[in-house]
Amino acid sequence: MQEQQSPAFAIVDPLSTSFGNTLAGKFVWGNKLAVYAFRPITATTRDEPTEDAGKKPVNIHFLQPEFIFDDPILRSLIAEASSTFVALQKLNCKGYKADYMKISRTYRSIIRACLEKLQEAASSTESEAMEKYELYQQFIAIFYSVECVWHLSEILFLHPSTSHVVVPQLLEWVRFHFPSYERMATDLLLLGPDGSKSDEYWPCLKGLIMQGQVDVARALLQLHPQAGSAAYEIAEQILKTMPTYNILGGFSAQKFRSQWQYWLTDTERKLAANTLSVEPYLEELIQLVTGDTEIWNTQIQNSQYWYEHLPGHLFYTNPACTHFELGAIANAWLERWASLKSYDNIEHLLKHLDKVILNLMENNMHQVIHSIQLMADNQWFVTHLTDLLYNCGQLQLMGQNQLNDCIKLRDSLLYEFGSNLMTRNSLWQLGMDYLEYCSEPEGMATLELLLTKIPIKTEKQALKILDICSKKQFINAEEEICKVQAKKSFTEERYGNALEWAIRSKDTFYVTSIADYLLKHYVQTGDILCPDVIANIGARMFIAPRLVFLAKYFDFYQFYRKNDFLPAAELLLNLLESEIIPEYFWPSLLVDTIPLLESKDPKIFFKETCCILQHVESNLMPLIEKKKKHMEKHPNEPINILKHYRLDNVEQIINLVRLACARNLSRAIIIENTLIN
User: Where does the protein principally reside (predicted)?
Assistant: First the structure.
């Protein structure tokens, strides 16, 4: 177990050097900190600009922790943990303790699998892996600490024990995190009788005894050549008859203590009679089992971590220790460990993990949650552990009257972690789950906002996000994404796609802008862009008047191309009578009437022809007047108002339309009067 070193960094800011290297900072988003030069203000400071005002730039430095889950190995951890998180939420705080234990063990198995992958990667001989060796070692240290604390939290808060006895589970915990003696014993047992000749034989036996693994120690003792001697038989009898507290055994703690005291008295009598003195190593083992203070002190002095031998000592001295007694016992044991190590200041002696474990044993959940937030795992551990404790009802141990504070704590952690994931291109889908299950209204509001900020690379991804918005009824987000896609498609000159996205956004401004572009392009070139899209607009055209005009003019265009002149004329006249014609399109629309007016078989009757003449005077003539006024105001600016539109000579257009109208009037009068007569 290695202590995580706090990273050190320097900020170079020329402006701050003028004021004694002072800086000010403010959190701007999640865990991102903005730092900038700061001028200290006192009561005697004059209210005037400094000498550097306007001379040196004001730099803003953004600081935030490194995001470790970009690594592929850790990305798999966060993906698997997310599915477990969702499964936990579905229990809806109504599960049994066994359900929460299963969830907790699933989390731990995910962490263990990740640790195995990290260790494998760290030991790889590939060049890329070798370059990341130190990084992988840091990750291993972080998540080993995470797993260690999680395991202990599971024992103390989730384990389904009505008697609250914790010693058996603490022994399992210490064996799991200090497995060297168990591995050593396995190797020695495989060697058979030769195992007793190994230099590791007696150290392994002492380690097993101090971890409460009495049965494994007995098996190792049977390998010794003197296993049949009187001393070894006495030791075997002592270890075999040692009572163990079993919460399922059906007898009380008081009855167990009486049995234990009888066994202890008998064992101490045998030790006092020097029955084992001929085998000093064996005698030392039995003295450890009886809790001999001097022998245990010697082992404590050689230990690296203060909690390494605590569960084993409890197993031999107080096996019925409960969760509620553990805090006082842990503090007494820590003081004993520190005094034997000759350390004066315990606070400076303890590393971060040591303090977290002590706080857990003290049931100081406030401090535990505060401490695990400092682990360099981007708040993954504190978020998931707090959520698990909240769901199983154990977070309320922080204070029986502080339920609202517990809920706020859990929600704030989910909010921060989910928001952090949503800012990562590859993890935003996982971040959604955390924000969705945040009971605060800000969670869903933030989710809706952040969905619009996701960098969309393909239309498939855009459709996927829109499907999510639709299911969650995020109407504003859906419209915003469509507008972004419309603008992107327009920039890429995919005008049909841009029009589709604009229509889907239901934004009148975007739809009008794109429809305007398509109409102006037609005025300039005579070609209609994206005809397939326009032909299939249907009832969606009513989003914007300009789109209605585009769709109806396209229908006219189609009729005209098919030489279907009567419906074309009818549609053209309806457009002329509408109030949705853009000003720049009047010349083109009136030019389109000329072939219909010049037809030998009149398609436009007398009354409609008069209306066309009226539009020439009321809509086309003002364009000429506007052109003249503009040229008078800007005589040196060679700009023709109608330069970019279909025709250059508006006067000639007017004359042609008037002439066509006159001819059509004469024909229409004759035909209509003939029909009347």
Answer: nucleus
Q: Going edge to edge, which strands form the sheet with 60-63?
A: 23-29, 32-37, 60-63
In 3-state terms the chain splits into helix, strand, coil percentages (rounded to 5) of: 65, 5, 30
Cβ pair 152, 355 in contact under 8 A: no
Give me the domain span that covers residue 36. Answer: 14-64
* Pairing of β 23-29 and β 32-37: antiparallel
Q: Is 27 helix (H, G, I), strand (E, B) or coil?
A: strand
Please report the sign of the dihedral spanned by the C-alpha atoms of residue 321, residue 327, residue 328, residue 334: positive
From 44, 64, 84, the end of a domain falls on 64
Which of 91-100, 303-312, 410-419, 459-468 is the least confident region? 91-100
Among residues 549, 135, 207, the alpha carbon closest in space to that of 376 is found at 135
Six token digits for residue 41: 């203000």
Largest CA distance in the chain: 148
For the chain, the first-to-last Cα distance in angstroms comes to: 112
In a domain, 648, yes or no: yes
Q: Taking phi first (over 0 means left), then psi (-120 to 50 degrees means alpha), and beta for anything else, what does residue 516 get?
A: alpha
User: Which structure tokens are listed for 406?
Assistant: 């517990």
User: Of 64, 79, 97, which marks where a domain is finished?
Assistant: 64
Is the model's pLDDT at 151 over the cut of 90?
yes
Residue 37 backbone phi and psi in degrees, to 5? -65, 145
Is residue 80 domain-resident?
A: no
Is 358 within the bounds of a domain? no
Cβ-based neighbours of 538, under 8 Å, separated by 6 or more: none
Q: CA-to-CA distance for 118 and 178, rounded, in angstroms? A: 19
Give SS3 for 322.
Answer: strand
Q: Please tell me the total count of domains within the chain.
A: 2
Q: CA dist 501 to 7, 243, 469, 483, 644, Å?
A: 47, 77, 15, 7, 27
pLDDT band at 506 (very low <50, low <70, confident <90, very high): very high
Supply angle C-alpha 295, 297, 301, rounded to 5.
Answer: 125
Residue 565 domain-assigned (yes or no): no
Long-range Cβ contact pairs of 613-616 (< 8 A, separation 24 or more): 613/657, 613/658, 613/661, 615/576, 615/586, 615/590, 616/590, 616/654, 616/657, 616/658, 616/661
Mean pLDDT of the chain: 84
CB 645 within 8 A of CB 600: no
Q: Is the pLDDT at 525 greater than 80, yes or no?
A: yes
